[in-house]
Amino acid sequence: MFRANLTSVTMFFFLGFSHYPKVEIIIFVLCLLMYLITLLGNMILISITILDSHLHTPMYFFLSNLSCLDIWYTSSAFPPMLINFVSGENTISFLGCAAQMYFSLAMGSTECVLLSMMAYDRYVAICNPLRYPIIINKRVCVRIAAGSWVTGCFTALVETVSVLQLSLCGNSVINHFACEILAVLKLVCVDTSKVQLIMLVFTILLVPMPMLLICISYAFILSNILRISSVDGRSKAFSTCAAHLSVVVLFYGTALSMYLKPSAIDSKEIDKFIALVYGALTPMLNPIIYSLRNKEVKAAVKKLLSKHIHLYNLQHYPENCKIGGIN
Question: Closest Cα to residue 118, out of 133, 136, 130, 131?
Answer without folding.
Answer: 136
